[in-house]
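Format notes (please read before filing issues)

Several people have asked whether sequences and structure tokens are stored in separate files. They are not. Every record keeps both together, in the order shown below: the sequence lines, then the token lines. Line labels are part of the format and must not be stripped during preprocessing.
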Amino acid sequence: MHRLLAAIALMSATPALAQPAPAPQAMPAKLPFSPAVRAGNMLFLSGQIGQVPQGMDRHRDGFDAAVKGAMDAIGKILKDNGLGFGDVVKCTVMLDDMADWPRFNAAYLPYFDGHRLPARSAFGTDGLALGAPLEVECIAAFK
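Then the structure lines:
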């Protein structure tokens, strides 16, 4: 009996192991923000999250697919406003795991191929909307 109580006490004193990231949730029908807002000659894009498609391992193909999803969404918003990646002047990158930084850079750079790179900031977070592994927001300028 004493051994059982000691084992229970030890287990309760041991820090919990890190829990896996929550599964991506369904996107609400109407989100409480605009995809982009124009102010003068600037277009401010809302952050675009990259979700790991169901069935994909987050740290293998899933992360790369999430970067592609976020960047493709940014490209669509830019195009819908008559702009492209060459018009982007600033990006802010939020990563749920900073260990993904090199993989993010590798997937991000081709979107600016042939264009100057925008200014950029990045930081690690402790969780993002809908369990996403990353979020990217950008500012573009009309010429």
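For reference, the curators noted about this record: DSSP finds three helices and six strands in the chain. The CA atoms of residues 8 and 14 lie 10 Å apart.
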